[in-house]
């Protein structure tokens, strides 16, 4: 039977509570978009970590307080600048780097290395990703049209193509 020390657990919960209070506006900005794919990304990241928890947490936990504090301070600076200038992208970046800082603070770089990809996956909650996808949308539409015409022709259908519009006679 595992015994969980109460003092470190309360300390970790205290850090998470302070983090949630400090970054409430950033969470709120994500939630204002509605229950869209942003929330799904958080759920998927947590599921990835939970499903392979033996792999991710099978490392010695060595808190790195100086590095974790440094990352958290950078995160707070990003949050302050983002809030002061009403720049959503900085506030979202602050949220992500803040989570990274907490992981480094509590578990050190060994835990951060193990959790890197699920934590990097959180970058998709940023509104910057939406801009990247908007730029790529015409390319994806055109590519999809080419593939659809190719498959339709292979199945013997006659197609008329005008840019991304496909007409079947």
Write the layout of secondary structure elements.
Elements: H1 6-22, H2 24-32, H3 37-51, H4 53-56, H5 65-84, H6 88-114, H7 116-121, H8 127-154, E1 160-162, E2 165-167
Question: Can you characterise this structure?
Answer:
This protein is mainly alpha-helical. It has two domains: 9-125, no CATH class; 128-169. The chain contains eight helices and two strands. The chain has helices at residues 6-22, 24-32, 37-51, 53-56, 65-84, 88-114, 116-121, 127-154, and strands at residues 160-162, 165-167. Strand 1 (160-162) and strand 2 form a beta hairpin. Helix 2 crosses helix 6 (88-114) and helix 5 packs antiparallel against helix 6 (88-114). The protein starts with 5 loop residues before the first helix and ends with a strand. The model has no long low-confidence stretch (mean pLDDT 79).
The domain tally reads 2
Largest sheet data: 2 strands, antiparallel
How large is the count of helical segments? 8
Shape: elongated
Rg over C-alpha atoms, rounded to the nearest angstrom? 22 Å
Q: Characterize the quaternary organization of these chains.
A: single chain
**What's the number of extended β-strand segments?**
2
- Percent of residues in helices: over 70%
Please state roughly what percent of the residues sit in beta strands, choosing from under 5%, 5-15%, 15-25%, 25-35%, 35-45% or over 45%: under 5%
Distance between the termini: 70 Å
- Average pLDDT over all residues: 79
Widest β-sheet, arrangement of strands: 1-2
The arrangement of helices and strands along the chain is HHHHHHHHEE
Q: Could you list the spans in which at least 5 consecutive residues all have pLDDT below 50?
A: none
Structural class: mainly alpha
């Amino acid at each position: 039977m595992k015994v969980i020390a109460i003092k470190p657990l309360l300390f970790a919960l205290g850090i998470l509570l302070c983090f949630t209070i400090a970054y409430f506006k950033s969470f709120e900005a994500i939630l204002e978009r509605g229950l869209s794919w942003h929330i799904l990304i958080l759920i998927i990241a947590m599921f990835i970590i939970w499903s392979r928890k033996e792999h991710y947490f099978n490392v010695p936990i060595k808190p790195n307080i100086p590095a974790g504090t440094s990352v958290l301070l950078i995160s707070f600076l990003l949050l302050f600048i983002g809030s002061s200038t009403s720049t959503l992208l900085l506030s979202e970046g602050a949220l992500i780097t803040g989570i990274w800082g907490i992981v480094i603070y509590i578990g050190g770089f060994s835990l951060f290395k193990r959790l890197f990809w699920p934590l990097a996956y959180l970058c998709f909650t940023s509104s910057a990703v939406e801009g990247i996808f908007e730029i790529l949308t015409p390319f994806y539409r055109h590519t999809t049209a080419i593939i659809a015409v190719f498959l339709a022709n292979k199945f013997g259908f006659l197609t008329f193509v005008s840019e991304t519009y496909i007409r079947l006679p």
